[in-house]
Amino acid sequence: MKKKLLVVLLIAVLVLTALTACGKKEEPKQEEPEKSEEGSKEEGGGEEAPAAIDLGELKLQFVPSRPAEEIITTTDGLGDLLIEQLGKRGYNVSAVDISVSSSFEAAGEALSAGSVDLAWLPSGTYITYSDEVDVILTATRAGLSNDSMNPQDWNGVENQTQRSGDQVAYYKALIYAGPSPKGQELAAKVAAGEALTWEDLDSATWCISSNPTSNAGYSFPTMWLMDNYDGKKLTDLSNTIQDNYAGAFQKLAAEQVDITVCYADGRTDYAEDWETPADKETSKGAGWGRPASIWEECNVIGVTSNIYNDTIAITKAKPEVYNPEFIKAFQDAMIEIAGTEEGKAIIGIYTHEGYLPAQDSDYDGMRSALKAIQE
What is the pTM of this model? Predict the structure, then answer.
């Protein structure tokens, strides 16, 4: 009897122990979720932005295709705009120095030596110095209402050159005959569909650029002569004088020269000066006092092939600016500035309307042309 009772008690204890064990069953261990890299950054306040790079003073230079005073006055606000835009892109610029070179070549030399950081160079000047400098932007302009290779199509009041097309990366140079007796004689032959001879051109007085790397003022008119007159060049002409575009048109108006060379919308730039009386002022100075409009008195007698637009080039001599990061920052900054009203007014000094990123190979065609001129 006692034995039976002991067995019953043992069974009861075993049952209770089993039930207790079941009641205390462990919950599955909850694993803490892994923190993502992004989450870690958020909890830690995020990664700090890289420290801005101090560049100190940035030196820019323009070429004298317009009077130096006019360029300095027009570009006055560019420094502040660049300081602001480069600051947004991680570069601290303490000041921007803007200067105008004494010649196209002087700008190329200064950029090559690193005395300036960036320069606005015509494409011919850029090509001449491209071993020591690099193109980073090319200018765009509105296409013109006329793009003909036939000089007759450019003449007359009904064919006034308007800047009315899409943005383009090229332009043409024109050979202009003025109101002097010789200039009118040459214009009349072209209007009649007669071909001008070398003797016709050589008997005239020409005003050309003093800069042999000026595209519209020298190199492309030289190519025009070479293509049409058995390889003869501007240097083969008997009567030439040198001046900038404004001076050349003023001399044309004064009948001091018979022919000048300039970009295709040159008459548009000087139309007001042409017929404003000499005792009255225009935005550029005293008028030139012609009795009729520039479209009636100044006629096109030759048209060059397309010229690739001006550049903004950078020195290779200073690694603090000649590196991919700064170049990208400057490209983006100038493109943004050019898209503002204030920026458009500044870059309008060269009739630029915008900029596009550029590379050296864009200018290979012009390189070949300039090589032909120099041979």
Answer: 0.64
